[in-house]
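User: I need a structural model of L-aspartate oxidase from Allobranchiibius huperziae for a docking pre-check later this week. Nothing fancy, just the predicted C-alpha cells so I can convert them on my end. Input:
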Amino acid sequence: MGTSTDSTPVVVGSGLAGLTVARALAPERCILVTPDDLTAGAASMWAQGGIAAAIGEDDSPELHAVDTRRAGADLGDAGTIARITAAAPDVVRRLHALGVPFDLAADQALDLALEGGHSRRRIAHAGDRSGAAITRTVAGHVATLDSVEIHTGLHARRLLTDSAGKIAGLVLRSASGAEVTIDTDRIVLATGGLGGLFAHTTNPRTALGQGIAMASRVGARTDDLHFVQFHPTALDVGLDPMPLLTEALRGAGAALLADGSRFVDELQPRDVVAAAVWAQAQSGRRVVLDARDVPDVLTRFPAVADLVSAAGLDLASDLLPVAPAVHYAMGGVTVDARSRTSVPGLWAVGEVARTGLHGGNRLASNSLLEAVVSGEAAAADLIGDTWRAGGDVPAADRESLRAAGEAPGPALDEVRQVLESSCGVLRTAHDLREAVDRLDAWTQDDAAYVGWLIARSALADPRSVGAHRRVDTTAAGSAA
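Assistant: Understood. Predicted C-alpha cells for L-aspartate oxidase:
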C-alpha cells in the first residue's frame, strides 16, 4: 500500500464500531485498516449476551437509562445515557432489517432476555453468539461497499500531528515489519479495549490498549481508565484468555455457589457480583456456577456449551469453577457526543472511547449498543467541515503525556502481573503506588504506558465506587 496524500478518513479496526463507521459513511469514501482479516480479533465477535434496548411493552428508554445509571454507580453522564438509550430501539430494528438473525418469540416478536442489572427483559440476542452474528452481518455489508477500501495485515503504530497539534497521518506496520504511512487529517480509532494487559481476562490477548497509547502520546485526553470491569463468571480452568460464561446464564436461573451455598443475588450489577465472588475465593471457598437446573441449557447456550466442553466439562451436568476476569474498560479516550477527541481530526468509537455511558461499571449488553451509536455519530461528523472548528473535550493532563521510545520495554507478562496484583478487584494505595513507580520507567513501551495510565488513574481516585474498589478508604474517599 502506498502513501496516501488526500483527506480520506481512515478507520482503524474492524470490530462492530469500526465497521459501523465505514458503513454509515457510505457513499463517502474511507480507508479501513485492520491487523488481520475483517472482524478477526475483535472483542465484539466474542460478545455472547446481546444488545440492550427498551423494546418490550413494559419497558421504556427512561427505565433503560435508570438501570444504566444505577449500574454505573451514578457516575455516568446523564445526557449521554439518555441519548444512547433513546437510540437503542431503532438501532436494534435497523440491525434486524439489515439481516441480523435475532431470536424470535412464538408471536414473531423479538425474544428479549434478562441480564444482571436490568429491571426488564430487554436483551435482543442471537443465541449466545450475538456479537458474532451482529458483527458478521455488518461486516458482510461493508465488504460489498465500493466506498470502503479495506487493508488487512496492518498494525497501527503511531499517530502523526502537524505543528498545530492536528492529525496529519498514521504510521502502520505490515506483517513483514515494513512501515507504511498514510497522510490524512481524519482518523477514527476503533481499536478495542485493554483487557489483554491483565493476567486474567476474557478479552483477546491482542487487546492491549494500543489506541489509548497512540491517542495519549499525541495529547488526547483520557478519563476513567481505572474503571475496569471484572466479569464475575469466567471459567477458571487455567486457559488464557478465560472462557466467558455469559450473564444470560444467570438471567436464566444459574446460581453461584461457594462450598455448596448461595452467597449473592446473581442478578446484581457485575461489579457487585464480581466483588462477592472474589471475597469468597479469598476466604478459601470454592466458587462454582451451577447451571444444571436451567431449562434446555445446551440448546439455549450452545456456544457456552462448546466452551465448557472444550475444557472437559458439561454445562448441563457439572458444577463450573469460576473466577472474576477483566472483561471491559469503561474508561478510555474521552469523546463528546460526536465521538470527537480533544485532538482535532481524531475520533474514537467503541471500547477504546470513554463516552460517559458506563460510569463506574458497564450495564450488561450496553457495549454493542454503544459501538453502533458512537460509530454512527462519528460518521455523521466526518462528513463536511464542521469538525475543523474543534470539539467539546477539554485538553489532556500534560503530566500524563509520554513519548514513545526505541528502548526495549518489559515483557508483556511482566506488565500483566503488575496490573493483576495492583489493579485487581480490590485495590490499595500501597499496591497502586508500587505499580505506578514500577511502570513509570517503561512508559516508552505502549503496553507499559497504558498500564501506567491505568494505575495512575486508580491511585488518584480515593473512592471505593463502581468497579474501582479501594479497601483502604471509605466509599466517600476518606482514609479508612
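Before docking, keep this in mind: The mean pLDDT is 94.
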